[in-house]
Amino acid sequence: MNILATDYLCAFDNIDESQKLIQQTVRKFVTEKFKPNIMENYERAVFPQEVIKEMGALGLLGCNLAGYGCAGLDEVSYGLIMKELERGDSGLRSVASVQSSLAMYAIHTFGSEEQKKYFLPKMAAGDFVGCFGLTEPDFGSNPAGMKTFAKKEGKNWVLNGSKTWITNAPIADVAVVWAQTNEGIRGFLVEKETPGFTAPKIHYKLSLRASITGSLFFDNCKIPAENLLEKSEGIKSPLMCLNQARFGIVFGVLGAAEDCLEEAISYSKERIMFDKPLASFQLIQRKLAIMATEIAKGGLIAMQLAKLKHEKKIHASQISMGKQNNVQIALDCARTTRDILGANGISGEYRCMRHMCNLESVYTYEGTNDIHLLIVGQQLTGIPAFS
Protein backbone atom coordinates (compact mmCIF):
# COMPACT_ATOMS: atom_id res chain seq x y z
CA MET A 1 0.00 0.00 0.00
CA ASN A 2 1.39 3.37 -1.03
CA ILE A 3 0.74 5.92 1.73
CA LEU A 4 1.48 9.55 0.93
CA ALA A 5 3.32 11.37 3.69
CA THR A 6 1.23 14.46 3.01
CA ASP A 7 -2.12 12.61 2.94
CA TYR A 8 -1.54 9.81 5.40
CA LEU A 9 -5.23 9.11 6.04
CA CYS A 10 -6.18 9.42 2.36
CA ALA A 11 -8.50 12.40 2.96
CA PHE A 12 -8.13 13.43 -0.68
CA ASP A 13 -8.27 9.95 -2.21
CA ASN A 14 -11.89 10.25 -3.32
CA ILE A 15 -11.69 13.47 -5.30
CA ASP A 16 -13.06 12.96 -8.80
CA GLU A 17 -11.14 13.13 -12.07
CA SER A 18 -12.06 16.75 -12.79
CA GLN A 19 -10.87 17.79 -9.32
CA LYS A 20 -7.61 15.88 -9.81
CA LEU A 21 -7.09 17.63 -13.14
CA ILE A 22 -7.71 21.03 -11.54
CA GLN A 23 -5.21 20.26 -8.79
CA GLN A 24 -2.59 19.04 -11.26
CA THR A 25 -3.10 22.07 -13.48
CA VAL A 26 -2.65 24.53 -10.64
CA ARG A 27 0.40 22.70 -9.29
CA LYS A 28 1.98 22.83 -12.76
CA PHE A 29 1.21 26.54 -13.03
CA VAL A 30 2.69 27.29 -9.60
CA THR A 31 5.76 25.13 -10.26
CA GLU A 32 6.52 26.58 -13.68
CA LYS A 33 5.30 30.18 -13.46
CA PHE A 34 5.68 31.18 -9.83
CA LYS A 35 8.18 29.09 -7.91
CA PRO A 36 11.30 29.75 -10.02
CA ASN A 37 11.43 33.39 -8.87
CA ILE A 38 9.70 33.22 -5.50
CA MET A 39 12.78 33.61 -3.31
CA GLU A 40 14.08 36.58 -5.31
CA ASN A 41 10.63 38.16 -5.26
CA TYR A 42 10.29 37.46 -1.53
CA GLU A 43 13.67 39.01 -0.78
CA ARG A 44 12.92 42.06 -2.94
CA ALA A 45 9.33 42.35 -1.62
CA VAL A 46 7.91 42.13 -5.14
CA PHE A 47 4.73 40.46 -6.32
CA PRO A 48 4.77 39.35 -9.98
CA GLN A 49 1.56 41.03 -11.10
CA GLU A 50 1.47 39.16 -14.40
CA VAL A 51 0.37 35.99 -12.58
CA ILE A 52 -3.00 37.60 -11.83
CA LYS A 53 -4.00 37.53 -15.50
CA GLU A 54 -2.48 34.06 -15.81
CA MET A 55 -4.68 32.87 -12.94
CA GLY A 56 -7.62 34.52 -14.65
CA ALA A 57 -6.87 32.69 -17.88
CA LEU A 58 -6.90 29.41 -15.95
CA GLY A 59 -10.29 30.24 -14.42
CA LEU A 60 -8.95 30.40 -10.86
CA LEU A 61 -10.36 33.81 -9.90
CA GLY A 62 -13.86 33.75 -8.46
CA CYS A 63 -13.86 30.09 -9.46
CA ASN A 64 -16.55 28.99 -7.00
CA LEU A 65 -18.97 31.73 -8.06
CA ALA A 66 -21.57 31.14 -10.75
CA GLY A 67 -22.08 33.24 -13.89
CA TYR A 68 -20.53 36.55 -14.96
CA GLY A 69 -17.46 34.85 -16.38
CA CYS A 70 -16.82 32.78 -13.25
CA ALA A 71 -16.13 29.04 -13.44
CA GLY A 72 -18.78 27.92 -10.93
CA LEU A 73 -16.60 25.16 -9.44
CA ASP A 74 -17.50 23.07 -6.40
CA GLU A 75 -16.13 23.74 -2.93
CA VAL A 76 -13.55 20.94 -2.99
CA SER A 77 -12.13 22.22 -6.27
CA TYR A 78 -11.88 25.71 -4.81
CA GLY A 79 -10.13 24.33 -1.73
CA LEU A 80 -7.65 22.34 -3.81
CA ILE A 81 -6.83 25.46 -5.82
CA MET A 82 -6.11 27.39 -2.63
CA LYS A 83 -3.96 24.52 -1.34
CA GLU A 84 -1.84 24.41 -4.47
CA LEU A 85 -1.42 28.19 -4.57
CA GLU A 86 -0.27 28.28 -0.95
CA ARG A 87 2.12 25.39 -1.59
CA GLY A 88 3.86 27.99 -3.73
CA ASP A 89 3.53 30.86 -1.25
CA SER A 90 0.93 32.23 1.15
CA GLY A 91 1.19 35.56 -0.66
CA LEU A 92 0.04 34.01 -3.93
CA ARG A 93 -2.95 32.37 -2.25
CA SER A 94 -3.75 35.63 -0.45
CA VAL A 95 -3.92 37.59 -3.70
CA ALA A 96 -6.28 35.04 -5.25
CA SER A 97 -8.32 34.65 -2.06
CA VAL A 98 -8.89 38.38 -1.61
CA GLN A 99 -9.80 38.76 -5.27
CA SER A 100 -12.21 35.80 -5.20
CA SER A 101 -13.65 35.23 -1.75
CA LEU A 102 -13.70 38.81 -0.50
CA ALA A 103 -13.99 41.33 -3.34
CA MET A 104 -15.75 39.25 -6.01
CA TYR A 105 -17.95 37.41 -3.52
CA ALA A 106 -19.07 40.74 -2.03
CA ILE A 107 -20.08 42.08 -5.44
CA HIS A 108 -21.69 38.77 -6.44
CA THR A 109 -23.70 38.55 -3.20
CA PHE A 110 -24.54 42.16 -2.38
CA GLY A 111 -24.16 44.03 -5.66
CA SER A 112 -26.69 45.18 -8.22
CA GLU A 113 -27.05 43.42 -11.54
CA GLU A 114 -25.26 46.32 -13.23
CA GLN A 115 -22.33 46.07 -10.78
CA LYS A 116 -22.04 42.33 -11.28
CA LYS A 117 -22.10 42.60 -15.07
CA TYR A 118 -19.50 45.35 -15.10
CA PHE A 119 -16.98 44.21 -12.50
CA LEU A 120 -17.13 40.41 -12.22
CA PRO A 121 -16.13 39.39 -15.79
CA LYS A 122 -13.16 41.77 -15.65
CA MET A 123 -12.13 40.48 -12.23
CA ALA A 124 -12.56 36.83 -13.24
CA ALA A 125 -10.23 37.44 -16.19
CA GLY A 126 -7.67 39.20 -14.01
CA ASP A 127 -8.12 42.44 -15.96
CA PHE A 128 -9.41 44.17 -12.83
CA VAL A 129 -7.87 43.65 -9.39
CA GLY A 130 -10.01 44.01 -6.28
CA CYS A 131 -9.30 44.55 -2.60
CA PHE A 132 -11.42 44.41 0.56
CA GLY A 133 -11.36 47.30 3.02
CA LEU A 134 -12.59 46.24 6.45
CA THR A 135 -9.71 46.37 8.96
CA GLU A 136 -8.84 49.79 10.38
CA PRO A 137 -5.81 50.97 12.38
CA ASP A 138 -7.79 50.75 15.63
CA PHE A 139 -10.37 48.13 14.69
CA GLY A 140 -9.23 44.66 13.68
CA SER A 141 -10.86 42.00 15.83
CA ASN A 142 -13.79 44.36 16.46
CA PRO A 143 -14.68 45.52 12.94
CA ALA A 144 -18.14 46.66 14.04
CA GLY A 145 -16.44 49.58 15.81
CA MET A 146 -15.06 50.98 12.55
CA LYS A 147 -14.78 54.75 12.22
CA THR A 148 -14.83 55.08 8.44
CA PHE A 149 -18.07 56.91 7.70
CA ALA A 150 -20.11 57.41 4.55
CA LYS A 151 -22.57 60.29 4.38
CA LYS A 152 -25.25 60.63 1.71
CA GLU A 153 -25.07 63.97 -0.08
CA GLY A 154 -27.51 64.31 -2.96
CA LYS A 155 -26.71 61.69 -5.59
CA ASN A 156 -23.36 60.85 -4.02
CA TRP A 157 -21.84 59.25 -0.95
CA VAL A 158 -18.91 60.97 0.74
CA LEU A 159 -16.41 58.71 2.53
CA ASN A 160 -13.98 59.71 5.24
CA GLY A 161 -11.67 57.39 7.16
CA SER A 162 -8.98 54.78 6.60
CA LYS A 163 -8.32 51.06 6.31
CA THR A 164 -5.05 49.20 6.77
CA TRP A 165 -3.36 45.86 6.10
CA ILE A 166 -5.30 45.53 2.86
CA THR A 167 -3.98 42.92 0.42
CA ASN A 168 -3.89 44.14 -3.21
CA ALA A 169 -4.70 47.74 -2.18
CA PRO A 170 -1.96 49.56 -4.14
CA ILE A 171 -2.76 47.73 -7.39
CA ALA A 172 -6.54 47.45 -7.01
CA ASP A 173 -8.84 48.81 -9.69
CA VAL A 174 -11.76 48.63 -7.26
CA ALA A 175 -11.93 48.52 -3.48
CA VAL A 176 -14.86 46.97 -1.62
CA VAL A 177 -15.07 49.32 1.36
CA TRP A 178 -17.16 48.89 4.50
CA ALA A 179 -18.26 52.04 6.30
CA GLN A 180 -20.61 53.27 8.95
CA THR A 181 -23.64 55.21 7.72
CA ASN A 182 -26.66 56.71 9.43
CA GLU A 183 -28.40 53.43 8.54
CA GLY A 184 -25.67 51.11 9.81
CA ILE A 185 -22.69 49.46 8.11
CA ARG A 186 -22.88 49.29 4.31
CA GLY A 187 -20.56 48.26 1.52
CA PHE A 188 -19.30 50.56 -1.25
CA LEU A 189 -17.31 50.19 -4.45
CA VAL A 190 -14.52 52.74 -4.70
CA GLU A 191 -12.69 52.78 -8.02
CA LYS A 192 -9.06 53.79 -8.34
CA GLU A 193 -8.25 57.41 -9.11
CA THR A 194 -11.46 58.56 -7.44
CA PRO A 195 -10.67 62.03 -6.02
CA GLY A 196 -9.97 61.86 -2.29
CA PHE A 197 -8.95 58.18 -2.44
CA THR A 198 -5.35 56.98 -2.04
CA ALA A 199 -3.92 53.48 -1.52
CA PRO A 200 -0.24 53.63 -0.54
CA LYS A 201 1.89 50.52 -0.15
CA ILE A 202 2.98 49.30 3.29
CA HIS A 203 6.75 48.81 3.38
CA TYR A 204 9.18 46.87 5.59
CA LYS A 205 7.03 43.77 6.00
CA LEU A 206 8.82 40.73 7.40
CA SER A 207 6.00 38.41 6.30
CA LEU A 208 4.02 37.96 3.06
CA ARG A 209 6.78 39.88 1.32
CA ALA A 210 5.86 38.48 -2.09
CA SER A 211 2.41 40.00 -2.01
CA ILE A 212 1.26 43.62 -2.10
CA THR A 213 -0.23 45.14 1.03
CA GLY A 214 -1.40 48.70 1.54
CA SER A 215 -3.70 51.12 3.27
CA LEU A 216 -6.82 52.92 2.04
CA PHE A 217 -7.40 56.58 2.84
CA PHE A 218 -10.61 58.50 2.17
CA ASP A 219 -10.60 62.27 2.43
CA ASN A 220 -14.02 63.58 1.41
CA CYS A 221 -14.01 60.86 -1.21
CA LYS A 222 -17.11 61.30 -3.33
CA ILE A 223 -18.57 58.26 -5.05
CA PRO A 224 -21.83 57.98 -7.00
CA ALA A 225 -24.89 56.55 -5.26
CA GLU A 226 -24.95 53.58 -7.62
CA ASN A 227 -21.61 52.40 -6.13
CA LEU A 228 -23.40 51.35 -2.97
CA LEU A 229 -23.67 47.58 -2.57
CA GLU A 230 -27.42 47.78 -2.30
CA LYS A 231 -27.97 44.39 -0.62
CA SER A 232 -25.32 44.90 2.07
CA GLU A 233 -26.73 45.28 5.54
CA GLY A 234 -24.81 45.53 8.81
CA ILE A 235 -21.65 43.82 10.01
CA LYS A 236 -23.03 40.43 8.97
CA SER A 237 -22.35 41.27 5.31
CA PRO A 238 -18.54 41.61 5.55
CA LEU A 239 -18.45 38.66 7.97
CA MET A 240 -20.15 36.53 5.31
CA CYS A 241 -17.31 37.44 2.97
CA LEU A 242 -14.72 36.58 5.61
CA ASN A 243 -16.25 33.14 6.07
CA GLN A 244 -15.71 32.45 2.37
CA ALA A 245 -12.07 33.44 2.63
CA ARG A 246 -11.50 31.58 5.89
CA PHE A 247 -12.80 28.41 4.28
CA GLY A 248 -10.14 28.81 1.58
CA ILE A 249 -7.48 29.26 4.25
CA VAL A 250 -8.45 25.93 5.85
CA PHE A 251 -7.32 24.23 2.64
CA GLY A 252 -4.65 26.72 1.67
CA VAL A 253 -2.36 26.40 4.68
CA LEU A 254 -2.25 22.63 4.22
CA GLY A 255 -0.33 23.32 1.02
CA ALA A 256 2.34 25.19 2.96
CA ALA A 257 2.41 22.45 5.62
CA GLU A 258 2.75 19.70 3.01
CA ASP A 259 5.57 21.57 1.29
CA CYS A 260 7.41 21.82 4.61
CA LEU A 261 6.96 18.13 5.42
CA GLU A 262 8.25 17.11 2.00
CA GLU A 263 11.27 19.35 2.51
CA ALA A 264 11.91 17.92 5.99
CA ILE A 265 11.75 14.32 4.76
CA SER A 266 13.97 14.97 1.75
CA TYR A 267 16.56 16.90 3.74
CA SER A 268 16.70 14.44 6.63
CA LYS A 269 17.27 11.50 4.26
CA GLU A 270 20.09 13.28 2.44
CA ARG A 271 21.80 14.95 5.39
CA ILE A 272 24.48 12.71 6.90
CA MET A 273 25.29 13.03 10.61
CA PHE A 274 27.53 10.69 12.59
CA ASP A 275 27.92 8.60 9.41
CA LYS A 276 24.22 7.98 8.90
CA PRO A 277 21.20 9.86 7.55
CA LEU A 278 19.55 12.36 9.86
CA ALA A 279 16.27 10.55 9.14
CA SER A 280 17.54 7.46 10.96
CA PHE A 281 17.48 9.19 14.36
CA GLN A 282 14.51 8.64 16.66
CA LEU A 283 14.01 12.34 17.44
CA ILE A 284 13.76 13.19 13.75
CA GLN A 285 11.35 10.37 12.97
CA ARG A 286 9.19 11.44 15.91
CA LYS A 287 9.01 14.98 14.52
CA LEU A 288 8.16 13.78 11.03
CA ALA A 289 5.46 11.45 12.35
CA ILE A 290 3.82 14.24 14.36
CA MET A 291 3.86 16.53 11.32
CA ALA A 292 2.30 13.85 9.10
CA THR A 293 -0.36 13.11 11.73
CA GLU A 294 -1.37 16.74 12.15
CA ILE A 295 -1.50 17.35 8.39
CA ALA A 296 -3.65 14.23 7.99
CA LYS A 297 -6.10 15.50 10.60
CA GLY A 298 -6.15 18.91 8.92
CA GLY A 299 -7.04 17.28 5.61
CA LEU A 300 -9.97 15.45 7.16
CA ILE A 301 -11.23 18.72 8.67
CA ALA A 302 -10.91 20.52 5.33
CA MET A 303 -12.79 17.87 3.39
CA GLN A 304 -15.56 17.63 5.99
CA LEU A 305 -16.02 21.40 5.92
CA ALA A 306 -16.23 21.28 2.12
CA LYS A 307 -18.96 18.65 2.42
CA LEU A 308 -20.91 20.73 4.93
CA LYS A 309 -20.49 23.85 2.80
CA HIS A 310 -21.68 22.05 -0.33
CA GLU A 311 -24.75 20.79 1.56
CA LYS A 312 -25.35 24.32 2.96
CA LYS A 313 -25.17 22.92 6.49
CA ILE A 314 -22.02 24.72 7.57
CA HIS A 315 -21.88 27.07 10.57
CA ALA A 316 -19.46 29.98 10.84
CA SER A 317 -17.98 28.56 14.04
CA GLN A 318 -17.06 25.35 12.21
CA ILE A 319 -15.07 27.37 9.68
CA SER A 320 -13.41 29.15 12.61
CA MET A 321 -12.43 25.80 14.11
CA GLY A 322 -10.91 24.73 10.80
CA LYS A 323 -9.07 27.99 10.23
CA GLN A 324 -7.61 28.08 13.74
CA ASN A 325 -6.61 24.43 13.76
CA ASN A 326 -5.09 24.22 10.31
CA VAL A 327 -3.13 27.46 10.51
CA GLN A 328 -1.66 26.30 13.83
CA ILE A 329 -0.78 22.94 12.24
CA ALA A 330 0.92 24.62 9.28
CA LEU A 331 2.86 27.04 11.46
CA ASP A 332 4.05 24.21 13.71
CA CYS A 333 5.13 22.18 10.66
CA ALA A 334 7.10 25.13 9.27
CA ARG A 335 8.82 25.67 12.61
CA THR A 336 9.61 21.97 13.01
CA THR A 337 11.05 21.80 9.50
CA ARG A 338 13.24 24.80 10.19
CA ASP A 339 14.43 23.01 13.33
CA ILE A 340 15.24 19.81 11.42
CA LEU A 341 17.21 21.77 8.82
CA GLY A 342 19.27 23.49 11.51
CA ALA A 343 21.25 26.49 10.28
CA ASN A 344 20.22 25.72 6.69
CA GLY A 345 16.61 26.28 7.74
CA ILE A 346 17.07 30.05 7.69
CA SER A 347 18.46 30.05 4.15
CA GLY A 348 16.40 31.14 1.19
CA GLU A 349 17.66 28.07 -0.64
CA TYR A 350 15.06 26.20 1.38
CA ARG A 351 11.36 26.92 1.77
CA CYS A 352 10.45 26.41 5.41
CA MET A 353 11.54 29.79 6.80
CA ARG A 354 9.60 31.66 4.12
CA HIS A 355 6.50 29.56 4.86
CA MET A 356 7.00 30.14 8.58
CA CYS A 357 7.22 33.91 8.23
CA ASN A 358 4.18 33.98 5.94
CA LEU A 359 2.10 31.82 8.25
CA GLU A 360 2.70 34.22 11.13
CA SER A 361 0.47 36.63 9.18
CA VAL A 362 -2.11 33.99 8.27
CA TYR A 363 -2.23 33.10 11.99
CA THR A 364 -3.46 36.65 12.60
CA TYR A 365 -5.43 37.83 9.58
CA GLU A 366 -9.10 37.19 8.87
CA GLY A 367 -9.58 36.50 12.55
CA THR A 368 -6.72 35.90 14.98
CA ASN A 369 -6.07 32.47 16.46
CA ASP A 370 -7.59 33.51 19.79
CA ILE A 371 -10.65 35.12 18.23
CA HIS A 372 -11.47 31.92 16.37
CA LEU A 373 -11.16 29.94 19.59
CA LEU A 374 -13.57 32.39 21.25
CA ILE A 375 -16.02 31.97 18.36
CA VAL A 376 -16.02 28.23 18.98
CA GLY A 377 -16.23 28.84 22.72
CA GLN A 378 -19.30 31.02 22.27
CA GLN A 379 -20.99 28.30 20.23
CA LEU A 380 -20.18 25.71 22.89
CA THR A 381 -21.35 27.76 25.87
CA GLY A 382 -23.83 30.25 24.45
CA ILE A 383 -21.83 33.00 26.18
CA PRO A 384 -19.94 35.61 24.10
CA ALA A 385 -16.55 36.34 25.65
CA PHE A 386 -15.79 39.29 23.37
CA SER A 387 -17.26 41.91 25.68
Automatic annotation (TrEMBL):
UniProt entry tagged with the keyword Oxidoreductase: yes
Pfam families, per the entry: Acyl-CoA_dh_1 (PF00441), Acyl-CoA_dh_M (PF02770), Acyl-CoA_dh_N (PF02771)
Cofactor or coenzyme needed: FAD
UniProt keyword annotations, A-Z: FAD, Flavoprotein, Oxidoreductase, Transit peptide
Annotated Acyl-CoA dehydrogenase/oxidase N-terminal domain residues: 17-127
Source species, domain of life: Bacteria
Entry-linked InterPro entries: Acyl-CoA_Oxase/DH_mid-dom (IPR006091), Acyl-CoA_Oxase/DH_mid-dom_sf (IPR046373), AcylCo_DH-like_C (IPR036250), AcylCo_DH/oxidase_C (IPR009075), AcylCoA_DH/ox_N (IPR013786), AcylCoA_DH/ox_N_sf (IPR037069), AcylCoA_DH/oxidase_NM_dom_sf (IPR009100), Glutaryl-CoA_DH_mitochondrial (IPR052033)
A GO MF label: fatty-acyl-CoA binding
Domain Acyl-CoA dehydrogenase/oxidase C-terminal: 233-380
Residue ranges annotated for the Acyl-CoA oxidase/dehydrogenase middle domain, each copy included: 131-221
GO biological process entries: fatty acid beta-oxidation using acyl-CoA dehydrogenase; fatty-acyl-CoA biosynthetic process
Entry's family note: Belongs to the acyl-CoA dehydrogenase family.
Protein name: Acyl-CoA dehydrogenase
Organism: Silvanigrella aquatica
